[in-house]
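Design request, tokens follow.
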């Protein structure tokens, strides 16, 4: 208002140049006093997450109020420079173990990857793929493909498929907690049950690994059914940030619990099956020749009298009109195959591929499953 008055009165009063200069200085000084007297705006609140600390003395379960928890910052990432340098430039001198998860719309080759969560021991990074785009994902590619960065994830098949087909990323060196859970159960003498895959909610609830309830997960599932584009909304809501964080903040704790249980042989099986899970829905024309090699049998196991049998992934093409026979009435045919051999059998389902069957397991068991499935396709 003072500046406006000065301009309006400048011509009629014919003020001298020195008076004009003094008035300008006076107005400027008053403006500066006003600026200096106003306090700076408060910084945006720092979001934090509570993560459990691995401890040799802590029990298998804990509560949110337990002293086992510590606070770490949550960072929203849209630029590569916001990520730790040791993640962007993986090296054998600074090997990492991180938690990993992905959120999106119809997460698969044809869906939309929206957020990639990375859990470190001292921070959680939510990579906003919608805002950061190809640039930020290209920056993450070396670490996601590196053998120097162990990625702890729960059921990596569709995450790997989305990363591969949408960004050309070949997910590697994965410890899949769903696989690890099953192999620990077998290691402890429990019989394998076909299709008995632990959910992430179930894993969290198991007192041997976490002992935490996760009722919010079902709330989010309901919300996703009502609003399938939930993860595309921007800016990220507090609910989106909290949900994405909850899916990774326990992974490193669970990883430590599982590592303490796994024998050397079982650990090798976890990593090789994790690699095959990563391959599972990522079909290409060169039999994965451009992917990182499968984990070799460790030297201390290769020399034993009973050399562990290698595992493979087999993909069976199902001719048009034959998938109904493979599955059978109410799933009876495929369940019979699963019960007859010690191999995992996966279908593409609604997300596809719809005309293939994926078999993972020891070579002999996979070949047995192949023969049984081919038998269901034969005309009688």
């Amino acid at each position: 208002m003072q500046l406006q008055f000065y301009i309006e009165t400048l011509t009629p009063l014919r003020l001298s140049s020195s008076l004009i200069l003094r008035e300008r200085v006076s107005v400027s000084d008053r403006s500066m006093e006003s600026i200096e007297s106003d306090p700076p705006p408060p910084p945006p609140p720092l979001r934090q997450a509570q993560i459990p600390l691995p401890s040799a003395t802590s029990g298998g379960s804990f509560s949110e109020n337990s002293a086992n928890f510590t606070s770490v910052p949550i960072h929203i990432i849209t630029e590569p420079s916001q990520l730790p340098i040791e993640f962007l430039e993986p090296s054998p001198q600074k090997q990492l173990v991180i938690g990993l998860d992905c959120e999106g719309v119809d997460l698969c080759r044809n869906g939309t990857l929206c957020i990639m969560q990375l859990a470190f021991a001292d921070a959680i990074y939510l990579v906003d793929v919608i805002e950061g785009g190809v640039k930020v994902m290209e920056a993450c590619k070396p670490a996601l493909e590196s053998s120097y960065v162990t990625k702890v994830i729960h059921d990596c098949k569709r995450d790997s498929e989305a990363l591969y087909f949408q960004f050309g990323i070949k997910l590697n060196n994965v410890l899949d907690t769903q696989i690890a859970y099953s192999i620990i159960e077998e290691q402890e003498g429990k019989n394998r049950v076909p299709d008995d895959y632990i959910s992430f909610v179930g894993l969290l609830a198991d007192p041997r690994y976490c002992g935490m309830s996760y009722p919010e997960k079902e709330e989010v599932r309901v919300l996703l059914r009502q609003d399938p584009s939930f993860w595309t909304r921007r800016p990220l809501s507090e609910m989106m940030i909290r949900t994405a964080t909850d899916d990774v903040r326990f992974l490193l704790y669970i990883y430590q619990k599982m590592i303490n249980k796994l024998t050397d042989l079982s650990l090798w099986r976890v990593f090789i099956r994790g690699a095959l899970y990563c391959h599972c829905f990522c079909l290409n024309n060169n039999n994965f020749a451009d992917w990182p090699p499968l984990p070799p049998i460790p030297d201390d196991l290769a020399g034993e009298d009973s050399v562990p049998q290698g595992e493979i992934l087999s993909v069976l093409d199902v001719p048009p009109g034959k998938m109904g026979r493979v599955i059978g009435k109410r799933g009876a045919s495929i369940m019979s195959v699963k019960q007859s051999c010690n191999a995992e059998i996966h279908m593409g389902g609604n997300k596809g591929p719809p005309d293939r069957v994926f078999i993972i397991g020891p070579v002999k068991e996979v070949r047995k499953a192949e023969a049984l499935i081919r038998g269901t396709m034969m005309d009688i």
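Comment from the thread starter after seeing the answer: thanks! Strands lie at 48-52, 69-77, 96-105, 112-119, 124-128, 149-153, 174-176, 311-317, 344-347, 356-362.
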